[in-house]
Amino acid sequence: MQRITILGATGSIGVSTLDVLARHPEKYQVYALSAHAKVDELAEQCAQFRPARAVVGSADAAARLDALLRARGLAVEVEHGEAALCSIASSAEVDTVMAAIVGAAGLAPTLAAARAGKKILLANKEALVMSGQLFMDAVHEHGATLLPIDSEHNAIFQSLPASYARQPGAAGVAKILLTASGGPFLNRAVETLEHVTPDEACKHPNWSMGRKISVDSATMMNKGLEVIEAHWLFGAPASLIDVVIHPQSVIHSMVSYVDGSVIAELGNPDMRTPIANALAFPERIESGVAQLDLTSIGTLQFHKPDFARFPCLALAFESLDAGGTAPALLNAANEVAVQAFLERRIGFRDIDRVIARVMHENPHHAATSIGAVMDCDARARAAAQAIVAGLAR
Ligand code: NAD
Ligand code: MG
After folding, report:
1. Same domain, 205 and 137
2. Which residues lie closer than 8 Å to 71 by C-beta, 6 or more apart?
3. CA 61–ligand 2 middle distance (angstroms)
4. Of 89, 122, 148, the domain-final residue
5. Which of 7, 10, 13 for a ligand 1 pocket mutation test, highest count of atoms within 8 Å of Cβ?
6. What is the pLDDT of residues 168-208, one digit of tens each?
7. Of 247, 242, 220, 218, nearest to 230 (Cα)?
8. What is the DSSP letter of 11?
9. Element containing residue 314 per DSSP (H, E)
10. CATH code for the domain of 374
């Protein structure tokens, strides 16, 4: 039995993870679940999966969850706050942690799982973007196992040799080809992007996801974060990572080798495939995803990304090049700007303007400690909020 904690159980990835787990009750047991505010959903999940512990974002949410669980006669220990999240991620009772909280809020518990030497299924790309080297050092120092859930990185993971040791040259890797759908605005007239609504931005052509990552896909910041994620996961310099637009999202990414071979992972766009892959690795389990029917798809297309249409992609490459805490600045500014856009306080194109200003008006430093990264995150958030307030007036 693998005992599992799901951080962010009520989100898109969390729900898909529980769907896969429910197909294999003989293999997996849920130890703990977390949610920020969706107490009713979490109570339902507790009733179905019977975890020992559940963690929410506030004392008020904890009281409501506790009452709901008691009324159903369920004995679940209910806690709240960051220390409790770190505790369910690092407990001796847990083997595997699904890191599926969205944004910087996921960093502390994901890092706690790394320091406790857990098997980490990493969906929370923002944590790795912020803390890069420090996070990878914690994984190696404490013997944790890091398996990528992001579909592109899971595809790259499956396309690399089993013995891959974060050295592309030694493995004969020429390029990592990160595919991108291009999101909902791939072909929309650029001058109309100023006025798109949150609902239009969240309508992804291929994937059903949470609202923050959906907006990131529309700006292509998601691909920018994924370039940084690939850099850290696979030890690849930016010069070895190419972004390829592939609107069908059937090829989830590829590895190109020096002998001219290209290895790819293909499948229907459904996150249960990478989730099942990482859960069972190195074995294979059924995920609920239909087998790919290439003849019904017919055509696969590829082209180069347009950096002028998607300035966020260029900003992400710039931050990776700058190094240190620059990606933490980028990530924090993006989280604030996306939230402001979702709340209709700024326009869609203001997102890249806010990020560019935060990056160019605030210094970045060497990322010497998690404390230094968190300081930088806090400064960038304050700077971004001030710029948003100016734009919103
Ligand atoms: P979501 O918004 O659907 O779910 C987010 C989860 O995090 C929820 O359970 C929520 O309760 C919890 N959460 C939110 N704010 C929190 C806070 N401040 N503290 C603690 N918990 C909090 O998001 P999602 O689409 O499931 O994405 C989760 C992560 O996975 C993101 O980092 C995203 O980039 C990554 N990811 C998602 C997909 C996808 O298909 N949805 C694909 C690849 C990567
Ligand atoms: Mg992805």
Report:
1. no
2. none
3. 31
4. 148
5. 13
6. 999 999 999 999 999 999 999 999 999 999 999 999 888 88
7. 242
8. S
9. helix 311-322
10. 1.10.1740.10
**Amino acid, res. 321:** D
The number of the ligand 1 atom at minimal distance from the alpha carbon of 209 is 41
Residue 334: is it exposed, middle or buried by C-beta count within 10 angstroms (0-12/13-18/19+)? Answer: buried
Q: Whose CA is nearest to atom 5 of ligand 1?
A: 11
Say if residue 363 is preceded by a cis peptide, omega within 30 of 0.
no
Our count of domains for the chain comes to: 3
User: Tens of pLDDT along 20-30?
Assistant: 999 999 999 99
Ligand 2 center to 389 CA (angstroms): 31
Among residues 96, 115, 148, which one ends one of the domains?
A: 148
Pocket of ligand 1 (CB under 6 A): 8-14, 35-36, 38, 57, 100-102, 105, 123-126, 150, 207, 209-210, 212-213, 271
For the domain that residue 98 is a member of, what is the CATH number?
A: 3.40.50.720
Q: Say whether 13 counts as a known binding-site residue.
A: yes
Cut 0.90: pTM above it = yes
- The reply to whether 8 sits in an annotated binding site is no
- Domain assignment of residue 281, yes or no: no
